[in-house]
Each structure stands twice: as C-alpha cells, then as structure tokens.
Amino acid sequence: MVRSDYFLQTEYIPDKRSRWVFRLLMIAVTLIFIGGMVLLALADQRRTAARAHQQLRHFAELFEQSLEASLAVANLEMWSLIDDISYLPFRYADNIDAHYGRRLQRAVEEIEQVDSLVLLDNSGTVLWSTAASLVGMNLGDRAYFQTAVTLARDAFTVGVPITSRGSGRRVTPIAWPVLSSSGELRGVIASSLGEDYYASLLSLQEVAPDMRVRIVTANGETAFANRQTAEGGSGAQMMASRALPGLGLEIHVSRDRAAVMRGYWERTIAFGIIALALFFTVLMSAIRARRHSVLLAEGLKRSERDRLQIKSAQREFDAIFENVGDGIVIFDDTGTLRRSNLVARRFLGARDDDTAVRRLRDRIPPLPVIPEGTATFRLDLPPGEGEDERQAVQCRVKKLKLYGAEIAYCMLEDISAQERLAEARMAFVTSVNHELRTPLTSLSGALDLLGDRFGDTLPQGAAKLVSMASRNTERLLVLVNDILTLQAIDQQQLSIAREPVRVGQALTEASATNAGYGLSRDVTIRVNPLPDHEDPVLMLDPVRLQQILANLISNAIKYSPPGGVVNLGADVTDKAVSLYVTDTGPGIPQAALDRLFDRFTKPIHGRDVQASGTGLGLAITRELVQRQGGEITIETRAQADGACDSGTTFRIRFDRGTSEAEKDP
Amino acid sequence: MNVLFVDDEADIRELIELAIMTEPDIEATFAASGTEAMSLLATQTFDVMLLDVMMPPPDGLDVLRAARANADQGDAIIVMCTARTSAESEAEFRALGADHILHKPFKPLKLAEYIRSLT
C-alpha cells in the first residue's frame, strides 16, 4: 500500500533569486555585447576614415610630385630653349620668325607640357606666338609677365587661370624670363597649362571614381578640376591638400565621405548581423542550458526525495514483512531472489535468508514440478529453539510470474495446534461413534431377535411397540452411519475405489436394492431403458455410486404419493452421462433450494409433507458425487410454488472424458 | 464349524448366542477379553474367528497377531468387527492378516448366513 503523501501535490518551483540573477546576468551580457559592438564599430569607423584620409594625402603627394617633376622637366627644356634664343637681344633680330620660328615650333612639338608659346619682349609686345593673331599685341599688363621679368635664371611663374579666348577653355599661364647667359633680360616666354595637361598627368595616377582633384592657384582660383564642382557637391567631403610652394599652386583631393564609408557600413552591418546571430545563438543556448540545468537540478532533487521515500516505504514494508504472523519465504529458481521473514526463519531454524530458503527447498518439490496456482505441503520440522515438540507447518506455495521469471511465494503456517485439535476431535468422534454403536448393535439385534423369535406370541400392542422401537433404532443407525461418512469426508479419509461401472447395471441394482422400501410405501421404481441401448462404462466407485442412488431413490420414494412411480434412468451424450431420479412428489420450494444440500438443514416442507430423515442424506450425496468428479443438479416444480404437476428430478452428471473407462474392443 | 467370538460386551455376546444357537452347523465359543481369547487359541483350533477390535488391552489386533503367530490356527478365517470405516484402518487390518472386515453395527440374525458365506 503506497501512501498518497509520498507523492508531490505541487510542481517544483525553481529558486526565484537564482532566476533573477540569471536574468540580470543575461541583460548585462547583452549590454556589454552591444556596447562592445558599438565601440568596435566606432573604432573601425575612425580607422577607416583615417585610412581614407591617409590615402587621399598620399594621392595628393604623389600627384604633386608627378606635377612637380613634369614641370621641372618642362622647365629644363624651356631653359634650353631660352638659351638657344637669348644670344642676342630681340631688337637685333628683324625677323623673329625667321630666326627663331623653327626652334620655337620644335619646342612646342617636343615639350609635352607646352602646347602653345608666346614670346614677348621687354615691353610686353608679342614678338612670336603659335597663335598668329597675338603678334604685335602688348601683354605687358599681365600679371605673369610682370612676375616673370623679376625672376632669376631657372625659375618660372604660374599665373592666374584664365579662360582662353580662342578655345573657351580654362588655361593656366606659365611664364619664364628670357635671360641671356650674362643675366640680361631679353623678354618673356609664356605658355599655358591646359586642362588636358593636368588630366593626362592625373590619368597616370590611380584615381578612384568618386575622387575629386582640384588644382588651385594662390589666389584661390581653380586651375583644374577633374569633375564639375556641382557634381557630388552635396554631403560631407573628406579632403587632403598639398601645396607646391614654389609655384603658388595647391592640390586639393577630396572624396565623398559617404562613398568612402560605404564599404565601412557594409562591412559593419554584415559583421554586426553575424555577431548578433552568433551572440543570440549563444544567448539562447545559455538560456536553454540554464533551463536544462534547472530541470536537472529539479530532477535530482526529486529523485533524492523519491529515494528517501522509497527507502522509508521499504523500511515500512520490511517491518511489516519481517513481523507478519505467518512465515513468508520468497525465492526464484535463479537464486537471485531469496527473502524470508522472522517467523519463517524461526520455523526453519535459520539465521539468514539463504539458509531459510535452502532448508525450505529441501522439503518441497523443485519449483518447476510444483503445480500452478497454490499448492499446499505439510512440513514436519524439527523442534524450535527451547521446545521439544516437532513443528507441523503448512506451506502454501504460490507460483507467481514476475518480470518474466517464476517466483515462489511460500506462506508458512503453524498447524501443530490445528492438527492436535483435529486429532482430538477425530478421537472424540471415533470414540463417541464406538460408544453409540455398541449399544445400538445390541439394541437393534435384540429387537430383531425379539421380532423374529417371539413375534407371533406377542400381544398386538406389544408387537406394534417392538416394531416402533425397531424402526427408530434403524433411523438412529442411519444417522450414526451418516455422521461417520461425513467425518470421513471431512478428514479426507473417504476412500474412492474406482473401477469400471456399467451404468445400466448400476441402475438395475439400485432399483432392486430399494424395491423393498418402495413396496412398503406403495411406490413403484421404474428403470427407463438407456437411449440407443448403449450402456456406457464409467470409472466410479460402485459402492459409493449405489450409496448415492440409494439416497436419492429413498428420498424420492419417501415423498412420492401412494401409487406413485419413481423413474430412474440416464441421458447419454458424447461428452457426459447424466443419471436421473424423478419423482412426482410435492417438489421443493424455490426458496429452499439453496440450503437443500446443507447439513442438518431446517425442514424444507411443512409439517404435513416433511418426511423424517437425518438431514444429512443430501449433504453426503453431494460430497460423494463431487468426490468422484461429478455434479449434482435439481429440477423441481413445487406445489408450494403453485405447480399442478409437481415433482423433482435429481441429476448426477459425470464427464465421459475423465470418468469413462476404456471400452473393451 | 468352530467359530470363536471375541467381544468385551456381554450383551453382544448374549445376542449372538441367542441368534446362532438355533444353527446346528455352527459351534460357537465366546471370549469376553483378549486375554481369554489368547488362552483359548492355545488350546483349541477354530475355522472362523470374529474379533472385536476395540477392547481393553490386549485388543482385537493383539488377538489377531497372536492367531497369525500360532501355526495351529493357520487355516482360520479371521474377521475383524469394527465401527471404524476408514480405508486406512481397513488396510492396517488386512496387513496384519485379517481376511474380512465386518462393520458394526451388524445384524445378529444375518450372522449365521454371513459366516457360511465365508467358508
């Protein structure tokens, strides 16, 4: 029996504090992660911006170097030209073109940086030009002219960009003083740096598509821009500049900040997504792990509690098992299960389970031989400690199937007292029986002799009295015999000696034996022929069968009306033989049927119908029938229940399978 | 035919005597105790013996043993008269040498016929 309080009524609630701690921890980890991510992103942004700026600066520097180198080369070549044309002052050359035209033309062709030339004298008058229209004009007011005349050898000046009248393009004037080898100023030679020049110079560098390059003169004018200013003017710009100090030029390189940072954002977002995914995976794992660990802890706690409960239940069971009044021994055939309790060990004189089981098994048949269900064995055991009488113990063995193995559950019960009591009772009955029979024998013998020898000489009244005494003596004898038979049945000492019995013959014999009694009551016994003239043979005790039939027939005669007929016969089927005794008496009331076979039952019929008897006849009959494997049934229609054709049929059914003799061929 | 009846009940002995005294072919001898029966066994031989089992010692079984131990009584038919009907006691009697068992109560009037049926 498992008590209900061994089981939890409420679900396990995990520790609230630990849950909050875990939540806070999770929040803290998330915040730290997000903070770290932001910091990383910011640092990366700064680094990206710095790197882009550095690149811009580097680019500007490279471009500046390339521009400087290019101009230095042009300068050298120009000075070589100047040397060629400065032997004489220009006023001595009546025809400049004739003298220097070819040389100047060659310079235009050979010097990459120069696509036009203008030669001016000291006063600023154009002496020669690639554009013939300019010859004769005075350009003495031009800033580059005024600067150039002040320059020393190997120097040149770059002027403010102007929009060319001829081509409409923006050009930057560049001018050299024409100095003779002695340092005498002859004039100025000027040219222009077109946007094409800058563009071709720029094309030698690697220019990012969004990069804007501007060359600005000292006064802030733009000499060159690779893109229109309006284009991409919106948004923040990132810029680097580099000055060419000797020339008064400055190179501005700028990029759209958004374009520079686009890569950064793409990278940051991708990285962020991956990091977030990883982080949340880890977070979820942590939460799950935590939940599992909570469940695990709960399970452990519960199993620990269960273990304790099982232990206490076990202890309780052990206490009951150990101290129960009967001896109990449990064992199986494999030797894994060996249990016994205190009483069992005392019976078997054993100190431990092993000895108890061994001693018990020595006294009962092997386990496989013991029949299914409950088998009972009587054990005669040596006297217990401090006693001198041997112990009579009843051992009931019940075979159980448990987890596929066969287990013997043995209950040991001290039956010494019972046996002694039974012996005493038996001795008492035997003795009473003897004491009753001896005088009865004398009494009935004496009455018989009196009737036999002196019946004729007795006066009529005396003869009647002798007959009455004789009849009642007979009744007393039947009673004593019945008691004796029942005692034998109760003591399991009723012997059944089976032999082949022909049913037809048995019926005839029973009829003949009881015919006399029938005659005295004016009742005829009729034996009905067996169906198909078959005469089945059954394995029965012939004496006991006659006793059964005599009981039933005498009952039937007793209750038949004078002139009545008692029918005797048997129904035969393949499976069973059913013997019957039918009377036409008053029948048995339904209400009395269930106590019909009880011993010393109270009268079934009213005083007017009830015949005298011992009250044991049917009890004995049923025992005798059952002891031979048969079954007794009644069909009855009672006058008391309102039947007109009243009567009773007793049937005794024996299975042919078990009680039939093997037929002789 | 010499028949020995052993019974400690005087009434029974008397009834039997009354019942079979009219039978010419039966010569009845009576013993009232086991001791008396044993002394008779020493001096006479009997064709049939009817021994009551339940007597004060020596009882019917002692007489049975004595009769079977006596070579002179070798041909005697021994019937044990008893109120005991159990199969066990019957087997015991037969094991000791009893030929028949007569259950009490018996009818004294039918006794002569019964004795004749034995021989």
TrEMBL record, chain A:
EC number(s) in its UniProt entry?
A: 2.7.13.3
This protein's source sits in the domain of life called Bacteria
Q: Which GO terms describe its cellular component?
A: plasma membrane
Q: Which InterPro entries match?
A: HATPase_C_sf, HATPase_dom, His_kinase_dom, HisK_dim/P_dom, HisK_dim/P_sf, PAS-like_dom_sf, Sig_transdc_His_kin-like_C
Could you list the residue ranges that cross the membrane? 20-43, 264-287
Keywords assigned by UniProt, alphabetized: Kinase, Membrane, Phosphoprotein, Transferase, Transmembrane, Transmembrane helix
For this chain, one GO molecular function annotation is: histidine phosphotransfer kinase activity
Provide the Histidine kinase domain boundaries. 431-658
Q: Which reaction does it catalyse?
A: ATP + protein L-histidine = ADP + protein N-phospho-L-histidine
Read off the Pfam families from this record: HATPase_c, HisKA
PANTHER family documented for this protein: SENSOR HISTIDINE KINASE DPIB (PTHR43047:SF62), TWO-COMPONENT HISTIDINE PROTEIN KINASE (PTHR43047)
Q: What is this protein called?
A: histidine kinase
Question: Per the UniProt entry, what species is this protein from, by scientific name?
Answer: Pseudooceanicola batsensis (strain ATCC BAA-863 / DSM 15984 / KCTC 12145 / HTCC2597)
Instruction: Show the taxonomic lineage.
Output: Bacteria, Pseudomonadati, Pseudomonadota, Alphaproteobacteria, Rhodobacterales
TrEMBL record, chain B:
**Is Phosphoprotein found in the keyword set?**
yes
Give the superkingdom in one word: Bacteria
Q: Which SMART domains match?
A: REC
Q: Gene3D superfamilies annotated for this entry?
A: 3.40.50.2300
Keywords (alphabetical) are:
Phosphoprotein, Two-component regulatory system
- Annotated Response regulatory domain residues: 2-119
Transport as a keyword? Answer: no
Q: Which GO terms describe its biological process?
A: phosphorelay signal transduction system
- Give the 4-aspartylphosphate positions (modified residues): 52
One Pfam match, by short name? Response_reg
Do you know which PANTHER family this protein is assigned to?
PROTEIN PILG (PTHR44591:SF14), STRESS RESPONSE REGULATOR PROTEIN 1 (PTHR44591)
The protein depicted here goes by the name Two-component response regulator
